[in-house]
Design a protein that fits this description.
Strand content: 5-15%
Helix content: 40-55%
Distance between the termini: 36 Å
Shape: globular
CATH architecture of the largest domain: 3-Layer(aba) Sandwich
Order of helices and strands: EEHHEEHHEEHHEEHHEEHEEHHHH
Number of domains: 2
Radius of gyration: 21 Å
Mean pLDDT: 91
Low-confidence stretches: 364-369
Structural class: alpha/beta
């Protein structure tokens, strides 16, 4: 299992990642020319992922260095920010937690024999690499990663995140800070083609190890959603459950809490606000809102005016809650609803609608999410 040790000064930190046998399957998405030495490829893949994380945590110019320590045969990681006043020591705890959680999920996925249809769909285990971790201001709970993230070696290169970022910016969020609101946890960490067919194949595969993946998701949420008040009780950063599979995951694992708050519902409606205790051993409360998957917009055949308004309201809630997690989440939703329905803001809304239509109508094929 990965372990950690902090180093000084605070702008540099080291931790133990683990053995090649555990790490190579996790970072197998990072494929280089066959002429490359596998050990070099593994080091490069890990350095790529954790350097990207530092960038998205806004440690600009920060870098990751990975090496295999001769004394123990394990891979070690050093993260350094060039700004001497930066404190990156939190990575010494978070990265081993991330690696251990992802390793358990990878082993579970690998244990499931794939059908011919799954093999043809090129399903591949894919952890949420290179995302904001130490400075994450919120979490997006999603279904599964599209395989284009592997093509570009960028977990945020997808049609989902392109539209999500446009919604954030439309709500006044600084574009440079968008990655802090894009820490993604997929309930199924398996890359596939976007769309219904890819999603169905992913669900078939992951259904065989649902208990293990529930533990994996819970571990990542525990890592990312941290207390914003002193002590063991308090409130965490907000989370958005985007799309039916993410919302079904919440219903399956927190049904009692949800029904206490919104009644004996079988599914969650868009813009439902929840305050859930996601960790059994803590009193931490996470404010959550439900929203349609951002890519539903692409496939909607009719007038998308109210769909866009709904998306803007939900995203505004997320932006405001990320800025002040201790706010009353229901009051924040009321304010966001009032904002995007106010007569004084309808000219702005029309501009956003026109920009969305211009930017996204031809971005992808109609059968892609």
């Amino acid at each position: 299992m990965a372990g950690s040790k902090a180093s000084t000064p605070k702008n540099s930190v080291q931790c133990v990642l683990g053995a090649a046998e555990m790490l190579a399957p996790i970072f197998s998405y990072y494929s280089m020319p066959k002429s490359w030495d596998p050990e070099k490829c593994l080091r490069e893949g890990m350095e790529h992922a954790f350097s990207f994380t530092m960038l998205r945590d806004q440690f600009y110019g920060g870098w990751a260095h990975v090496w295999k320590e001769p004394t123990d045969g394990l891979y070690h990681l050093k993260l350094t920010s060039p700004k001497v006043t930066d404190d990156v020591t939190g990575y010494a705890t978070l990265i081993p937690q991330f690696v251990n959680a992802v390793s358990l999920a990878q082993k579970a996925i690998a244990s499931v024999p794939q059908t011919d249809e799954m093999k043809q769909g090129n399903l591949r285990f894919l952890p949420p690499f290179g995302l904001s971790m130490l400075n994450a201001r919120g979490v997006l709970l999603l279904h599964y990663p599209p395989d284009e993230t592997i093509t570009y070696l960028d977990y945020l290169h997808s049609h989902t995140t392109k539209r999500w970022e446009a919604l954030l910016i439309s709500n006044g969020h600084p574009g440079a800070d968008n990655p802090l609101l894009e820490s993604i946890v997929d309930v199924c960490p398996v890359a596939a083609d976007g769309g219904t067919e890819g999603g169905n194949l992913v669900d078939q595969l992951c259904a065989n190890v649902s208990d293990e993946l529930t533990t994996y998701v819970a571990d990542l949420l525990l890592m990312l959603l941290r207390c914003k008040q002193s002590g063991k009780s308090g409130v965490t950063q907000p989370m958005v459950a985007l799309g039916a599979p993410a919302q079904q995951w919440l219903m399956a694992n927190f049904k009692s809490q949800i029904q206490t708050q919104v009644g004996r519902v079988k599914s969650l409606k868009p813009l439902t606000v929840l305050q859930l205790k996601l960790h059994a051993d803590q009193e931490l409360v996470t404010p959550i809102i439900t929203m349609p998957h951002p890519c539903i917009y692409y496939r909607h055949p009719g007038d998308r005016t109210e769909m866009l308004r709904q998306d803007l309201i939900g995203t505004r809630w997320y932006v405001k809650m990320a800025a002040n997690p201790k706010s009353d989440p229901k009051k924040v939703l009321q304010d966001a609803t009032t904002y995007w329905n106010a007569a004084s803001n309808q000219a702005r809304f029309r501009k956003v609608a026109q920009a969305h239509s211009t930017e996204f109508d031809n971005l992808m094929e109609i059968d892609k999410p």
